[in-house]
Amino acid sequence: MAAAITSYLLAAALLLTATVRALRLRTATNVPAVRSSVVMLLAMAVTFAVFAPTSQAWANRFVPDLFKLTGNVATLVAMSAGSALVYHTRYPADIAHKKVRPRVLLLMGAIGLMVVMFVVPHPVALTGSFDGLYAIDPTLIVYTITYACYFGGTLVSLGVNFIRFARDSATAMAVALWILTIAAIVGVAHNVATIFIVFRNALSGARSGAGGTTGVCHSAFSDVSCFVAIGTPIVAAAIAVVGFLLSAAAPQFEKYQRWNRHRRVNRRLVPLWELLSSAFPEIVRGRGRRYATISDRVVEIRDGLLLLAPYRDHAVAGIAASAADQAGLSATRHAAIVEAAQIVVAHRRHAVDSTPLNDRPPAPHDEPADFEAEIAWLERVADALTDSVVIAQLNHQSIMEDETS
User: Fold this and answer.
1) What angle do CA 394, 399, 405 make, to 5 degrees?
2) pLDDT at 115
3) In contact, 343 and 385? CB cutoff 8 Å
4) What torsion, rounded to 10 degrees, do the Cα atoms 69, 71, 73, 79 define?
5) How many Cα atoms sit within 13 Å of 225 on the Cβ side?
6) CA-to-CA distance for 378 and 392, rounded, in angstroms?
């Protein structure tokens, strides 16, 4: 009873999720991907529902082992839809269609062959596990090998894609893809074990397997063969569910991570912003230090650096670079120290004498690739202003020179 309740609950959860996803079809920007996810979830719901013991008994009243054919076909459909989901998510529409089409044709061929092998007459009535029948029924060998090859082959393809995409994904999504890779490996192991059992029993003439003489597994742990037949797919499915849930939550998690990082960087940029806004109050567009967003802060800092640029002294860059070399700093820290040194000295020169040194501003620091790289660079510069010994020494030297003069 517990096994049946668990299966039906999983099927209901998958059906509900599929319904929610289907409602997004009208507004989805990637309709093929959403459609593939709906098909995958519905097929998985059918698989869990028909393999519940109660469903098995009900289906067998009409055709012996009809539940097995239905569940196996639903599993292959779910695998094919999952593969299509990955392709439509990661590739442009035209490339995704080219990759999906042959796999759909292969799926139709596999299902057609399985149905034919299932409906042809068998020497004995089918009662559940096929393990004890391979020695006397070649059609079941063809049926099982077809199922295992398509199932396992699709999982290998998915696993390879998961690994490839994980390398280029953010942390949360990468973790989800690695979890899905583990699920694929477990599923591949299940299919390899299934093929091994088929040939072992066919060659040895074994007349029993999963479920013993009755061929019925009352649980995934009835015997080793039942665990291979039922337990490993359950384990793979459970791991895959965790991976899919994490992949669905990954964008929101990464959005929170980005928001939290921007909030932290915004605070760390305050010393640099205060230095520039004290020299050029006109750069402040918002309501000041407390209320500025990270984008406002970056724009205002960049405006301040542009206004400060004519007061820069190239000689200061050389002095700061020499001091950074002696301190043995990393390349990124070295560049930030040089930039911070020029800002400090240029700011002091602007405060003492408003006459710029240059008619034309010097070339700016290499443009960052994107906004995240931009704020990372400015954060390092701001840190150098407050934490660098080189900048502290340069400040002290400038103060001494001002007092002397």
Assistant:
1) 125
2) 95
3) yes
4) -160
5) 21
6) 18
DSSP per-residue letters across 111-135? HHHHHHHHHS--SS---S--GGGTT
- Distance, in Å, from the CA atom of 258 to the CA atom of 253, rounded to the nearest integer, reads 9
Given a contact cutoff of 8 angstroms between Cβ atoms, the answer to whether 170 and 161 are in contact is no
Task: State the CB neighbour count (10 A cutoff) for residue 29.
Answer: 7
pTM of the model: 0.67
In one-letter notation, the amino acid at residue 90 is: R
Structure tokens at 202: 């066919």
CA distance 101 to 126: 34
pLDDT, position 394: 63
Residues 6+ apart with CB under 8 A from 369: none
Owner of token pair 């779910």 = 78
Partners of 209 in the β-ladder: 212
| % helix, strand, coil for the chain, step of 5 | 75, 0, 20
Token pair for 76: 């292959």
